[in-house]
Write a structure and sequence with these properties.
Layout: E1 7-9, H1 14-25, H2 28-31, H3 34-48, H4 57-63, H5 78-95, E2 103-106, E3 115-119, H6 120-144, H7 157-170, H8 175-191, H9 196-211, H10 217-234, H11 239-249, H12 255-268, H13 273-283, H14 291-304, H15 309-321, H16 325-338, H17 343-355, H18 359-372, H19 376-388, H20 392-408, H21 413-422, H22 426-438, H23 460-469
Antiparallel strand pairs: 1-3, 2-3
């Protein structure tokens, strides 16, 4: 798009561009598509970093769409197809919600390197709106005293910039994104040791590496807990700090302390979709006796942020845990109508289909999800479905690969145990589930509610694993 009329090409401050990017990614056009969020965030951040040479089809395929190094753009058009969708969504955004935005992100018809345009008329309008807002704020202060929460620490500019880069990397939800997020958040606290939010998100970045299977949980959770505690010590009113603390406490496991921390976070920020989401799936959904509460928290998250498909996918997972398979299926199919390339929605729908006896379609969905976004955990689900579908040879081939990978890097024990469960080999299944909990793999907490492990519940070795997770202390509500 050429700069004409009220639009001019202008060197804008990275902070302004990142603030605008955050608004775009949270808009209805993008909030429903994690893939397009990752795509746009990746190319904008690379551009701001002066790394235009990395904004190429091959690199985007690897970094954004989780293709492997064998990715050949000549045979796989994923980047070109998604780029067309990205251009269409940007055009729709600037025709609607973003029509008065002071900045435009422009992606030309050829290539993937974005440019940024400043709109003078919008900037003028924004200034006038800001003046009016200040006037209103003065009236509120004069009549009612100080408005809103007390002011917090204002980070140094380099720290704020590093923090914003960290957020963009974290929201990619990839192993590489998690590593980059950790580096940026560490830079932020190095620039400004009093930056509480940066510590809270550093805690989350450590955990994300383990969740994505790129780090052994024991290697990161101590650092994650320390970062969360540091955030709270710097700002005792920071809801994000308590949310991160709560998540970390579930790995000890200290379920009672974790619930108290989650409730403190909700009290501090009752309208945070993310906190209700976390409370529902990280803690409540682990207990078969509290799945109704988990569902209520996820429904609250959906109400607070209806455009976030992630909330709907996790709500569907809780419905699946509750054996309400038709409801879960309907919700996941609706999500995939909106975003046909959502790997987690595919995996959850596959799990529902497997419980309905449709192993063939479940396998196809698991395979598609693995191609879109490979996870070691995804291998476990795929191997399990293959075993149940009578494809034992393929299941054992995946199993052998996972065991070899574990010998080299002790990550992914739950995936191995899950394949053994599909093969109905209970002794090794229990051994690997026990190892997964010893390693504090996050998904192990759900073995008592996930239907795929139901056939194991009569096994004494399975009961011993559950005892170690100490879910009995989670059966009653903590105040």
């Amino acid at each position: 798009m050429a700069a004409t009329g009220s639009e001019i090409a202008s060197p804008l401050e990275p902070r302004i561009i990142r603030e605008h990017l955050a608004a775009v990614l949270d808009s209805p056009q993008f909030a429903r598509s994690h893939r397009l969020q990752r795509f746009l965030g990746f190319i904008v951040e690379r551009k701001l970093a002066g790394r235009d040479n990395e904004i190429q089809e091959y690199t985007i395929g690897l970094e954004v769409f989780d293709r492997r190094e064998s990715f050949d753009p000549r045979c796989d058009s994923i980047v070109r197809v998604e780029a067309r969708r990205l251009r269409d969504r940007l055009a729709d955004y600037y025709a609607k919600e973003g029509r008065t935005a002071p900045v435009r992100i422009v992606l030309a018809e050829r290539g993937y390197v974005p440019s940024f345009e400043e709109r003078r008329d919008a900037r003028s309008w924004t200034i006038h709106a800001a003046i009016a807002a200040v006037a209103c704020a003065l009236v509120i202060v004069l009549f009612y005293g100080l408005a809103g929460a007390p002011s917090r620490h204002e980070p140094a500019p380099p720290a704020r910039e590093a923090f914003e880069k960290g957020l963009a990397a974290w929201h990619q939800w990839t192993g590489e994104g998690a590593r980059q997020a950790q580096q940026f958040f560490e830079q932020a606290v190095a620039y400004d040791p009093e930056y509480a939010r940066a510590y809270a998100w550093l805690s989350a970045a450590y955990r994300q590496q383990a969740t994505m299977g790129d780090a052994a949980p024991h290697d990161v959770y101590t650092k994650s807990l320390q970062a969360a505690e540091k955030a709270i010590s710097l700002d005792p009113q920071l809801a994000e700090g308590y949310q991160s603390l709560a998540t970390n406490l579930t790995f000890k496991p200290d379920w009672i302390g974790a619930e108290r921390a989650f409730r403190t976070a909700i009290q501090l920020d009752p309208d945070s979709s993310g906190i209700h989401h976390g409370f529902g799936i990280v803690l409540l959904a682990a207990s078969s006796e509290r799945l109704a509460e988990a569902e209520a928290e996820l429904r609250r998250a959906v109400t607070l942020k209806p455009g976030d498909l992630g909330n709907r996918v996790v709500l569907a997972k809780v419905l699946y845990f509750r054996r309400r398979f038709p409801e879960a299926r309907s919700m996941l199919e609706e999500v995939l109508k909106i975003d046909p390339y959502y790997p987690d929605a595919m995996r959850n729908l596959a799990a529902v289909l497997l419980q309905s006896g449709d192993a063939g379609d479940a396998v196809r969905l698991y395979e598609q999800a693995q191609k879109l976004a490979y996870l070691a955990w995804g291998d476990g689900l795929l191997g399990h479905a293959l075993a149940l579908g009578g494809k034992e040879e393929r299941a054992r081939s995946i199993l052998a690969g996972r065991e070899a990978d574990y010998a080299a890097k002790p990550v992914g024990a739950l995936a191995i145990g899950t394949i053994y469960a599909g093969l109905r080999e209970w002794a090794p299944a229990c051994q690997w589930l026990d190892r997964a909990w010893t390693n504090r793999e996050i998904r192990t907490r759900y073995i008592n509610v996930d239907p795929i492990y139901a056939p194991m519940r009569e096994q004494a070795c399975f009961a011993r694993v559950l005892e170690k997770i100490q879910l009995s202390s989670l059966t009653t509500r903590s105040h």
